[in-house]
Amino acid sequence: MAREVDDEVSSPTPRRGRPRGSTRERILDVALELFTEQGYEQTSLREIAERLGVTKAALYFHFERKEDMLLELHLRLHALGREAIDALGKLHSDQQRADAWPEVLDGFMEQIMRNRDLFLLHVRNSRAFHVLADSEAHRAENEDIQERIGRLLASDEIPLAQRVRMAASIGALMGVVTAGDQFGAVPGDELADLLRGAVRDMLVPRGGV
Predict the structure, then answer these.
(1) Cα(92)–Cα(44) distance, rounded to whole angstroms?
(2) What is the pLDDT of residue 136?
(3) In the structure, what pLDDT confidence band is assigned to residue 30 with cuts at 50, 70 and 90?
(4) What is the spatial distance between Cα 115 and Cα 57, in angstroms, rounded to a whole number?
(5) Helices (DSSP H) in the chain: which residue ranges?
(6) Is the dihedral of CA 19, 22, 27, 28 positive or negative?
(7) Crossing angle (nearest 10°) for helices 66-89 and 136-153
(8) Higher per-residue confidence, 184 vs 60
(9) 76 vs 207, which has greater pLDDT?
């Protein structure tokens, strides 16, 4: 049965040069397009199936509800954050993690710029994500990342001034990427360079190199 469904969902062209992935990922890519273009609440499963060129039954094989698609798209963002946190976790001390913070954050910014559509999805569908925040799967993912960052920012091993700059850099980064349409016309590379410069200025102490 899985083979039949995969054959049925074989026509869509990968978005923005992405390599063709699994059927499940192609469904999510199309859902992301439609949720961003016309809104989550205004998009039906029928429209997603039509853009894919399949039946609703084929969609149900992978996702029983539209809410499941939204959660999976949200967890793509969590995966980006988890990669950065896992990189820090491989170091041996909180001070080493703090010193590596600019480099790790720089890599996180590159990931964000490659996935701006996911943040735009959040900005344009904030009410739907507010409801989603109550789900058990979302809470577990969110609490884990927040807890790990919170422990690092609370570490007495790291000078207070450095911890404050680290926390401020997160706010600056998310403030820009969640601005959504305000920077929508700015090319990703240009926005990334400007954001990277602003965050580095924030992380380097006055008189620092």
Answers:
(1) 48
(2) 61
(3) very high
(4) 29
(5) 2-8, 23-38, 45-52, 56-62, 66-89, 94-114, 116-124, 126-132, 136-153, 160-177, 188-203
(6) negative
(7) 20
(8) 60
(9) 76
